[in-house]
Design a protein that fits this description.
This protein is of the alpha+beta class and about 350 residues long. The protein is about 40% helix and about 15% strand. It is built from nine helices and twelve strands. Helix 2 packs antiparallel against helix 3 and helix 5 crosses helix 9. It binds dinuclear copper ion (CUA).
Length: about 350
């Protein structure tokens, strides 16, 4: 449906200017599963449109015929009841249309079943496995590996290689969330204590927005993440970089910033590999500087936004677990230097 893509991009272009991401739409599929959902949607759309047009035509014909027959009714020629033959014809027509409705519903049911089978199909016995854990209100992504030392953990940004099947294992630490990358697949709930599975197989490179699709509290709308679909080489390089411990601070201000991080309340909730900071309440920050957003897609990851976020996250995202931080201006600048060095 390329015409839809063109039309929707034209409409949305002013809103998306500068985002550098694809249009967030399940009708603009760039994945095997979303493609099958898209086909199902268009099948429903055209069948329903056809039925609507036929119903409107029948209604118009009935109204117009009634009007023209009324104009012929006079005191000398009163309206006559339809003959029995006409009643039989009407009954036959209604019976036929009821049968046709049943057939159409059956066809839609088969389409639904086939799309469901494509979405749930086990695509590969040895896929890339990403564990997704929902938190109020952020996403934890853990790239599994046979060797524990090669497991990569990140937050609020998913990287995927193009044209490879990826198994997504979903779980939640608090309430029910829903994992939704509209361009790649339908929604799948994350239910605490009841792991679920879904599959992704992106077919084009690009950056996509994704988000929680199940109301999960005050900041449900600020529970988003980005998905970067890239070549296998780029993906491998990104994953390898994720396996490295955090960069050591180089400048004096970065060293002071690290001390601020470790001695203030930051390290009680956030982990940085290779340092004593091991908090698990908030996102791990080992490679924080390479991430595109802060607060699960709430702000761009710029120095100014990060400073504002650290001092008063409640102002940006009321209800978020992260408390306000009282830091002097020098401490904040040092902390920013350190966090921005964590590539
Ligand atoms: Cu998580 Cu809505």
């Amino acid at each position: 449906m390329r015409w839809y893509r063109t039309a929707s991009i034209l409409i949305a272009a002013p809103l998306l200017a500068g985002c550098g991401t694809q249009l967030q739409s399940s009708l603009d599929p760039d994945g095997a599963q979303a493609g099958s959902i898209g086909h199902l949607w268009w099948m429903y759309f055209w069948v329903m449109t056809g039925i609507y047009v036929v119903v409107v035509i029948f209604a118009l014909v009935a109204v117009l015929r009634r009007k023209s027959s009324e104009s012929h009714v006079t005191p000398e020629r009163p309206e006559v009841a339809p003959p029995q033959q006409q009643t039989r014809r009407t009954n036959g027509l209604v019976g036929g249309l009821v049968g046709l409705t049943a057939i159409i519903l059956f066809v839609l049911l088969i389409g639904d079943f086939l799309a469901g089978r494509t979405i749930d199909a086990d695509l590969d016995p040895h896929p890339i496995v990403v564990q997704v854990i929902g938190h109020q209100w952020w996403w934890e992504f853990i790239y599994q590996d046979q060797q524990p030392s090669r497991i990569v953990s990140t937050a609020n940004e998913l990287h995927l290689p193009v044209n490879r099947p990826i198994r997504i294992e979903l779980d939640s630490r608090d309430v029910i969330h829903s994992f939704w990358i509209p361009n790649l697949n339908g929604k799948k709930d994350l239910i605490p204590g009841h792991p679920t599975t879904t599959w992704l197989q992106p077919t084009s490179e690009g950056t996509y927005w994704a988000q929680c699709a199940e109301y999960c509290g005050a900041q449900h709308a600020h529970m988003r993440f980005t998905v970067t679909v890239e070549s296998q080489d780029k993906f491998d390089a990104w994953l390898e970089a994720g396996r490295q411990p955090a960069q050591q601070p180089k400048t004096e201000s970065e060293k002071r910033g690290k001390q601020v991080f470790l001695t203030r309340q930051c390290s009680m909730c956030h982990a940085i590999d290779g340092t004593p900071a091991g908090g698990r309440v908030g996102p791990g920050l080992t490679h924080f500087a390479s991430r595109p957003t802060i607060g699960a897609g709430t702000l761009p990851n710029t120095r100014g936004d990060l400073g504002g976020w650290i001092i008063d996250p409640q102002h940006v995202k009321p209800g978020v677990r992260m408390p306000q931080n009282t830091l002097s201006s020098d401490e904040l600048q040092d902390l920013l230097d350190y966090l921005e060095s964590l590539q």
